[in-house]
Amino acid sequence: MQTFKTSKAKENILRKIRTALQEDAISLPFPEVEKTKIASLFATMNEGTMEEHFAASFTNAGGHFVFCNTQEDLLANLKLLAESRGWTEVLCAHKPLFSYLVNNGVSFVREFNPKHDHAQACITDCETAIARTGSFLLSSHQNHGRVAPVYFPVHIVVLQAHQIVADIGDGLQFLKQKYNDQLPSMINLNTGPSRTADIEKTLVTGVHGPKEVFCFFLNQ
Fold first, then answer.
1. Are 192 and 169 in contact (CB under 8 A)?
2. Which domains are present in the chain?
3. Coiled coil located at which positions (predicted)?
């Protein structure tokens, strides 16, 4: 077997690396950052409820916010939206909501099935929502959580008031508590419709995800 000798220069470099690794860690350039509370790094949100902050941020990000006082309002608004868009097939990945819609005679809603890839929209729930950024925190633990929120042209998220938190850190902490620190294998933060400037640096929507995002906010 042929053997190779390490050059003197290479050995000197490796020795310096080994020596450096044995020494204490290099001090941080800004050690005070480690002691700074994350919340203090952000601008304070103006007066108002979490719901109001989320609605404003979500709308600014290009989303469509629909306020529903009751489930009956949600049902009526969904029918009105589908009629105005001419939708004939809307998938629903949220099983309790799907049962409610079917039991109330909504004929255009189908139970989620990846084979129905020509559906015009898809309805899901979310893990939580972020008031500051107007984002939805989604995970693979949700029913078809990897596909349902991103595959179809329109994404409709049903959100309840108690699901809204202030910041992203609060949302991640919520997930840690919910899943006993065994986080889902995928966590996705969705903010408004899909956007990309990959092609000739021209901003377009709906290429890598939904072109439109609706939030049906259920005030319960």
1. no
2. 50-218 (3.40.50.10420)
3. none
